[in-house]
Amino acid sequence: xxxxxxxxxxxxxxxxxxxxxxxxxxxxxxxxxxxxxxxxxxxxxxxxxxxxxxxxxxxxxxxxxxxxxxxxxxxxxxxxxxxxxxxxxxxxxxxxxxxxxxxxxxxxxxxxxxxxxxxxxxxxxxxxxxxxxxxxxxxxxxxxxxxxxxxxxxxxxxxxxxxxxxxxxxxxxxxxxxxxxxxxxxxxxxxxxxxxxxxxxxxxxxxxxxxxxxxxxxxxxxxxxxxxxxxxxxxxxxxxxxxxxxxxxxxxxxxxxxxxxxxxxxxxxxxxxxxxxxxxxxxxxxxxxxxxxxxxxxxxxxxxxxxxxxxxxxxxxxxxxxxxxxxxxxxxx
Length: 333
What we know:
Oligomer: single chain
Number of helices: 9
Structural class: alpha+beta
Number of strands: 15
Distance between the termini: 61 Å
């Protein structure tokens, strides 16, 4: 049995392909069956059949002639989002996006071990309680992260409040129109003190670890990191890094390959070296973000040329007390 369900496309669903909108709106509908329904014109756009790659526009009216069992009954209220207490260190917020200073230990997205306390959960609960997002009024969009960082890495993560911001920001990241800078603590003193790390990274999915190669290899991705040493003491160096590419574990793997693993990094370093400093997670923080748009940015245009820096990083204060780098970086903005 089926009853006709009607949807009006809002601004957060505009621009999507019909088949992708359908898969998000009806997640329990099998993809082959969804394609069949579109082909049989049981999914109509403005009263007419449409191709699966048709782009939706705001105001389009969709009629779905699809069996009732594929529609999940909407809950009267999302109790979890109402009672969950979001804890966010906000660096910046406007009507389109959030810049959040993620603490080490917090996952960006749920995984098989943790499904509740993640960065995206905190963000969605925060926006729900501010009444800026209501899942009952959206067909497929939910606030989403534009970038992510490792669980035990701290720093700035971008979250989109609407679909247009998500599309624009994802394209800007792809086109490398953002500058992301990191601070890390490495073992020893790297030579030269300022330079460029280049190589090719190959990921082992089973070990969730990457290897560095000096020359291109099948499946390898190029990785380039610029670095400069800020301070050295007690066998450690405080280093600023700028990512030219953004690969999995890029900074951690490249410095380990250069003979200077990050302090606390048990995956790419040695536990015996970390133990003497009493640190169990990598000393790495995405501390600065700059927008350098060279093409149209739509609603994000006012952000062009602006930068944000986190005010405090615990491992800098612990291992390099009195270092004035962060305060001077703030003054430069």
